[in-house]
C-alpha cells in the first residue's frame, strides 16, 4: 500500500509539474518568456483543480464503497458455495449409513432383534451386518448391543467385562429415540482412526427398547472435504460442530472439543437453516456461512478472516482510485492545455501587444490569433488600439515638434532665439573640448536703431529686423547658425571656423547688409565683434569678450568689425 501511495504521490507531482510547464510550452509564437501563469489561467486552473479534486473525492468514495460491498458480497458468495458443497458432500456421505441404520433396525430387514439371544437369529443378524458392510465400503463397524450388555458383531470378541449399555453410541441412540442418533465422532482404540457413529434403538413387539443398532464409518472423506482450501482466501476453513457449539470434525489431525459459543450465539435455533454471520474468535474478525443439518445434529461452518477479504478489496480500490486520480489529473491538464491554447494565451497575447502598442513599440512581433471568436475579438481590439494610438502618437509628435520649434525660434525674425543659440554654443564648446574642433562666434548690433523706430515707427523697425535676419541668413553657410540675441543684437556661431575665416564671414555679412535695400531706404549698418574660441576661453568669457569688441566698434564710430 505504501509503495502504491508513493507511486501515486510521485505521479501526481509529475503531472502538476507538467501542467505548470505546459503553460510555458504553449507559446509557439511567443517571442516573450512567459514563466508565470497568468491571473486568469491561475483562476481557471484552481477552479478546475478544485472541481476535479471534489469530483475525484466523490467518485472515489462511491467507487470505494461499491467495491467494498461487492468484495464482501463476492466473499460471502464464495463462503456460501463452499459451505453448501461441503454440506452436500457430508449429507451424501452419511445418507446411505443412516439408511442402513434404519434398515437394520426395522423388522423389514428380516432380522428379528427381539430374539437376539437365539443362535439362529444371531446368525441372521450377523449375516445381514456382513452383507451391509460389503455393500457400503465406508462402514467400519456394524453391530448391535442389547439391554443385557451383550454385543453382536462380526470378527470381534469383546472383553469379558464389556457392557454395551454404558457405551456412548448406546446412550446416544437411547437419547435420540425414536430417531437415529446424532453423528457421534470418536477415536477407535485399536486403529486410532476417527470414526462417526450413528445408532438407533431396537424395539420388541410391545415397542419396548431392547437394544441399539450402531453403524460406525470413517471420517476421512468428510475431513478431506473440509480440508479443501481456496487460493483467493488462504484462511478459509471448514468445520463441523454440534448445536452446543462443540467442534466435532475439522481438517486438523486432532479433534479439539473446544466450544465455539461465539458462533452458536449467532446461529438461529430454527431447524435446517443456513446463513451468514460475522464474529470475533478472540484473535480475528471472521466472516462465516453456516448450514444446520439437524437430522445429524451438526452445523457445518465455513469461515474466513475478514482481513483476508479486505486485502484484495483494498488493493482493487487503491489501483482503481489511482487510475481515476491519474485520469482526472490528465483531464485537468488537457483542459488546462486547451484553455491555455485557445482562450487564455490569445487574451494574454492581446494584453501584451496592447501594452507594447501603448508603450510605443514601433513594430510588433508576428502573432497569429486562433481562428475562433476570442482570436477575432483580440485581433479587432489590437487593430483598434493600434489605430487610435498611432493617430495620437502622430498628433503628439507634431505638437512636440511645434513646441520645440516655438521654444527655439524667435517670433519676429523666425531665426534661432537666444535659448537655441546657447544650446548651439554649448554643443560647440563640448565638441571643441573633445576634439579641438575650432569654432568662432560673431556678435553684431544695429547702429542707431532707436532712430529707425523713432523716425519710422516700431512696425518699420520690425520689418528692418526681419529683413536683416533674412539677408544675413542667406549670406552665411548652412553649417553656421544665426540667432537673435535680443533687441537689435544678433549672434552667428560658425563651426570649423578660425579667426580669419570668421573675419571673412563678417565681411560678407557687412557687404550683404550694405548692398541690401531696407524698407524706407533706410541705411542699415551694424557694429560687429568676433572671436575664435581658444583653450583660454569658457563660454561665458568668449561672450563677454565679443560683447566688449562690439562695444568698442560702437565706440570707434560704428559700422565696423572688431576682431
Ligand atoms: N521695432 C523694434 N524695435 C526694437 C526691438 N527691440 C529693441 N528695439 C529698439 O531698439 C532700440 C535700441 O536702442 P539703443 O539701445 O539705444 O541703441 P541704438 O539706438 O541702436 O544705438 P546704438 O546701439 O548705440 O547704435 C530701442 O529703441 C528699442 O526699442 C524690436 O523688437 N522691434
What's the structural blueprint in terms of helices and strands?
Layout: H1 2-25, H2 39-105, H3 119-135, E1 139-146, E2 151-153, H4 168-176, E3 184-187, E4 194-203, E5 209-218, H5 220-226, E6 237-242, E7 247-249, H6 261-264, E8 274-280, E9 285-293, E10 298-305, H7 306-358, H8 373-408, H9 418-435, E11 439-446, H10 449-456, H11 458-475, E12 481-486, E13 489-495, H12 499-515, E14 526-532, H13 539-555, E15 561-562
Parallel strand pairs: 14-15
Antiparallel strand pairs: 1-2, 1-5, 3-4, 4-5, 6-7, 6-10, 8-9, 9-10, 11-13, 11-14, 12-13
The protein binds guanosine-5'-triphosphate.
Guanosine-5'-triphosphate (GTP) is lined by residues 412, 445-450, 453, 458, 461-462, 465, 487-488, 554, 558.
GO molecular function, one term: diguanylate cyclase activity
EC number: 2.7.7.65
Subcellular location: Cell membrane
Describe this structure in words.
This is diguanylate cyclase. This protein has helices at 2-25, 39-105, 119-135, 168-176, 220-226, 261-264, 306-358, 373-408, 418-435, 449-456, 458-475, 499-515, 539-555; strands at residues 139-146, 151-153, 184-187, 194-203, 209-218, 237-242, 247-249, 274-280, 285-293, 298-305, 439-446, 481-486, 489-495, 526-532, 561-562. It has 563 residues and is an alpha+beta fold. Among the domains are: 107-307, Beta-Lactamase (2-Layer Sandwich), CATH 3.30.450.20; 369-405; 409-562, Alpha-Beta Plaits (2-Layer Sandwich), CATH 3.30.70.270. The strands form 3 sheets. A 5-stranded antiparallel β-sheet has the order 2-1-5-4-3. Strand 14, helix 13 (539-555) and strand 15 (561-562) form a beta-alpha-beta unit. The two termini are 105 Å apart. It binds guanosine-5'-triphosphate. Guanosine-5'-triphosphate is lined by residues 412, 445-450, 453, 458, 461-462, 465, 487-488, 554, 558.
Amino acid at each position: 500500500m505504501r509503495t502504491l501511495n508513493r507511486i501515486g504521490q510521485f505521479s501526481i507531482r509529475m503531472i502538476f509539474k507538467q501542467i505548470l510547464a505546459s503553460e510555458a510550452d504553449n507559446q509557439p509564437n511567443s517571442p516573450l518568456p512567459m514563466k508565470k501563469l497568468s491571473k486568469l489561467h491561475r483562476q481557471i486552473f484552481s477552479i478546475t483543480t478544485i472541481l476535479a479534486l471534489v469530483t475525484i473525492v466523490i467518485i472515489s468514495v462511491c467507487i470505494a464503497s461499491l467495491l467494498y460491498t461487492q468484495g464482501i458480497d463476492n466473499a460471502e458468495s464464495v463462503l456460501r458455495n463452499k459451505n453448501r458443497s461441503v454440506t452436500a458432500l457430508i449429507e451424501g456421505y452419511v445418507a446411505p449409513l443412516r439408511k442402513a441404520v434404519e434398515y437394520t433396525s426395522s423388522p423389514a430387514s428380516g432380522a428379528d432383534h427381539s430374539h437376539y439371544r437365539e443362535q439362529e437369529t444371531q446368525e441372521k443378524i450377523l449375516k445381514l451386518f456382513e452383507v451391509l458392510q460389503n455393500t457400503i465400503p465406508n462402514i467400519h463397524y456394524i453391530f448391535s448391543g442389547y439391554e443385557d450388555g451383550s454385543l453382536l458383531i462380526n470378527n470381534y470378541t469383546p472383553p469379558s467385562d464389556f457392557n454395551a449399555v454404558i457405551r456412548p453410541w448406546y446412550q446416544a441412540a437411547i437419547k435420540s429415540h425414536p430417531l437415529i442418533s446424532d453423528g457421534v465422532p470418536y477415536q477407535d482404540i485399536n486403529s486410532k482412526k476417527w470414526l462417526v457413529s450413528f445408532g438407533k434403538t431396537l424395539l420388541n413387539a410391545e415397542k419396548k427398547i431392547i437394544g441399539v443398532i450402531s453403524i460406525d464409518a470413517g471420517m476421512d472423506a468428510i475431513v478431506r472435504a473440509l480440508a479443501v482450501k481456496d487460493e483467493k482466501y488462504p484462511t478459509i476453513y471448514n468445520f463441523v460442530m454440534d448445536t452446543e457449539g462443540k467442534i466435532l470434525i475439522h481438517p486438523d489431525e486432532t479433534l479439539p472439543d473446544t466450544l465455539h459459543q461465539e458462533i452458536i450465539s449467532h446461529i438461529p435455533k430454527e431447524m435446517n437453516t443456513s446463513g451468514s454471520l460475522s464474529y470475533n474468535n478472540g484473535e480475528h474478525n471472521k466472516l462465516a456461512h453456516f448450514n444446520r443439518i439437524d437430522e445429524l445434529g451438526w452445523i457445518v461452518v465455513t469461515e474466513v478472516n475478514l482481513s483476508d477479504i479486505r486485502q484484495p478489496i483494498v488493493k482493487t480500490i487503491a489501483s482503481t482510485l489511482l487510475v481515476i486520480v491519474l485520469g482526472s489529473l490528465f483531464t485537468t491538464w488537457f483542459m488546462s492545455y486547451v484553455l491555455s491554447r485557445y482562450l487564455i494565451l490569445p487574451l494574454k497575447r492581446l494584453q501584451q501587444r496592447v501594452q507594447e502598442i501603448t508603450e510605443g513599440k514601433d513594430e510588433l512581433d508576428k502573432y497569429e490569433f486562433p481562428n475562433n471568436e476570442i482570436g477575432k475579438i483580440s485581433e479587432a481590439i489590437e487593430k483598434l488600439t493600434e489605430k487610435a494610438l498611432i493617430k495620437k502618437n502622430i498628433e503628439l509628435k507634431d505638437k512636440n515638434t511645434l513646441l520645440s520649434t516655438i521654444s527655439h525660434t524667435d517670433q519676429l525674425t523666425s531665426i534661432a532665439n537666444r535659448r537655441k543659440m546657447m544650446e548651439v554654443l554649448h554643443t560647440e564648446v563640448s565638441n571643441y573640448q573633445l576634439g579641438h574642433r575650432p569654432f568662432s562666434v560673431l556678435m553684431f548690433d544695429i547702429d542707431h536703431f532707436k532712430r529707425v523706430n523713432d523716425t519710422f515707427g516700431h512696425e518699420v523697425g520690425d520689418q528692418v529686423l526681419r529683413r536683416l535676419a533674412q539677408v544675413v541668413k542667406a549670406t552665411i553657410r548652412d553649417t553656421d547658425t544665426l540667432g537673435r540675441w535680443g533687441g537689435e543684437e544678433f549672434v552667428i556661431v560658425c563651426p570649423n571656423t578660425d579667426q580669419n575665416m570668421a573675419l571673412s564671414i563678417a565681411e560678407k555679412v557687412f557687404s550683404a547688409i550694405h548692398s541690401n535695400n531696407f524698407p524706407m531706404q533706410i541705411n542699415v549698418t551694424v557694429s560687429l565683434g568676433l572671436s575664435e574660441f581658444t583653450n583660454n576661453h569658457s563660454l561665458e568669457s568668449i561672450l563677454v569678450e565679443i560683447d566688449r569688441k562690439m562695444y568698442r566698434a560702437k565706440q570707434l564710430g560704428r559700422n565696423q568689425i572688431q576682431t
